[in-house]
């Protein structure tokens, strides 16, 4: 079974304010006061506004969206995270913007690379947002990112997507 996630994560109030007015944006609460905005195909098409951004490496980030994330981060840190696994292999990437500038990353763990002692890119980004492992395996698990296996599943009626 696979796992695919492309999302923006921030404090719930920061993310809801940033996404206001974007018809394709839906925020979903996570644990520890964070929220997730799934980057679905519809959202991707709504926010892509130019050529690829300034982040090096293979990202599925919509063109120009890194500049939007920088703006969204003025009141508080905002992370863009990607993870893709199938049968135990895969990789993940993350970057965090804060106060309008790139503050962490971009971080990438490619397929076949050993998992770093300090945690994977997504957990490190979540830590930068204030998440704590709180007795869980890591921050990824602690905030509930394992609740769904695919990006679009975060918008299921069970989670009650909110504009």
Fill in the keyword field for this structure:
single chain, 163 residues, alpha+beta, 6-stranded antiparallel sheet, 5 helices, 6 strands
Provide a concise account of the structure shown.
By secondary structure, the chain is an alpha+beta fold. It has five helices and six strands, in the order E-H-E-E-H-H-E-E-E-H-H.
Give the percentage of residues in beta strands. Answer: 25-35%
Structural class: alpha+beta
Beta strand count: 6
| Low-confidence spans | none
> Into which percent range does the helicity of residues fall?
10-25%
Number of domains: 1
The chain-level mean pLDDT equals: 84
The radius of gyration is 14 Å
Shape: globular
Question: What kind of sheet is the major sheet?
Answer: 6 strands, antiparallel
Helix-strand string: EHEEHHEEEHH
Treating each run of at least 4 consecutive H or I residues as one helix, how many helices? 5
Strands across the major sheet, in which order?
Answer: 2-3-1-4-5-6
Q: End-to-end span in angstroms?
A: 30 Å
How would you sum up this structure, described in words?
The chain is built from five helices and six strands. A hairpin with a 2-residue loop joins β4 (78-86) and β5 (89-98). It has one domain (2-151). The chain is globular. 22% of the residues lie in helices and 28% in strands. The protein has a six-stranded antiparallel beta sheet, sandwiched between helices. The longest helix has 8 residues, at 12-19. The protein has 163 residues and is α+β, with helices and mostly antiparallel strands.
């Amino acid at each position: 079974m696979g796992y695919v996630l492309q999302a923006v994560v921030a404090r719930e109030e920061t993310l809801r304010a940033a996404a206001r007015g974007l018809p394709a944006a839906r925020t979903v609460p996570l644990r520890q006061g964070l929220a997730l905005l799934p980057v679905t195909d519809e959202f991707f098409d709504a926010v892509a506004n130019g050529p690829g951004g300034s982040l090096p490496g293979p990202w599925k980030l919509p063109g120009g969206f890194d500049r939007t994330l920088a703006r969204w981060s003025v009141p508080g840190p905002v992370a863009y995270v990607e993870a893709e696994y199938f049968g135990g292999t895969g990789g993940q990437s993350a970057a965090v913007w804060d106060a309008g500038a790139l503050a962490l990353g971009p971080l990438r763990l490619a397929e076949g690379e050993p998992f770093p002692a300090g945690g994977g890119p997504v957990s490190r980004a979540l830590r930068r947002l204030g998440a704590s492992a709180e007795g869980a395996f890591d921050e990824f698990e602690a905030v509930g990112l394992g609740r769904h296996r695919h990006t679009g599943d975060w918008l299921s009626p069970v989670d009650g997507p909110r504009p």
